[in-house]
Amino acid sequence: MDRYAPSFVIVPTKGALNKVQLSSPSIIAIGASTGGPVVFLNILRALPKRFPVPILAVQHVADGFITSFVEWLQPNCKIRIKIAQEGEKIQAGTVYFAPEDKHLHVTAKGIIRISTAPPIAGHRPSIDETFNSLQKNFSPHCWAFLLTGMGKDGAKGLKALREEGCYTAVQDPASSVIYGMPGEALRLNGAVEILHPTIMVERLLALAEKKPTF
C-alpha cells in the first residue's frame, strides 16, 4: 500500500468561510478515480468516530484491490469504514464503499442495494449510479463531492443532485492528479463550489459540530 502514502496532510483551517447556507444532509456521497485514494485518506482520517450521517463512497480501483484499500484506510481513521453489503441499513458514523465490480445504491429507507447491472460508460461501480440513487431518494438532503479522476463518471449525477437542491462540490485543479471528472462536472454546471480537500474537511467538520451555515 506504499503507493498511497499521503503526498499532503490536511489540516482544517480556521479562516473565514463562504457564506453558503446549506441544509443539513441525511447522507453524503463521495466519488473518485485516479488519485482518489490519497484524498480519501486525508478526508476520512479527519472525521470523528461519531460523524452524524452515513457516507457512501465510490473509488475506481484495479480488480481485487478494494478490500485491501478499505483495510488500509480503517486503521488510519476514527470513523468506521467498510465495504457495503446487500440489504444492510446505513448508519451514521460509517463509510460504505462500493464493492468490487458492483454498483452501489441506497433506498429511501436507507437500505443498501448492490447491483450487477451493466457498467455505465465502462464503469462498475459507477459514481453516477450512486449519485443518481441519492438524487432519487434523498434530495435535497444530500451532499456530494466529486474528487480527482480520469473521464466523466459522476459529472452528470452531480449535476442532477445540484438541480434538486443538494449541496455539491468538486475538487480543485491544483490538488487533483487528473481533472477529468471534476472538470466535466464544472462544464455541466454541476458544482456549487470548487474546493481544496482541506476545505472539504472543513465543511464536513462543521457539519459534525452542527454548524451547517458556512
From TrEMBL:
* An annotated GO cellular component: cytoplasm
For this UniProt record, the keywords arranged alphabetically read as follows:
Chemotaxis, Hydrolase
GO BP annotations of the record are: chemotaxis
UniProt catalytic activity: [protein]-L-glutamate 5-O-methyl ester + H2O = L-glutamyl-[protein] + methanol + H(+)
Catalytic residues of the enzyme: S33, H60, D153
Indicate the secretion signal residues: none
- Record carries keyword Hydrolase: yes
Q: What is its EC number?
A: 3.1.1.61
CDD domains reported for this sequence: CheB_Rec
Question: Could you tell me one molecular function GO term of this UniProt entry?
Answer: protein-glutamate methylesterase activity
The CheB-type methylesterase domain, residue ranges: 21-211
Instruction: Quote the Pfam families the UniProt record gives.
Output: CheB_methylest
Name it: protein-glutamate methylesterase
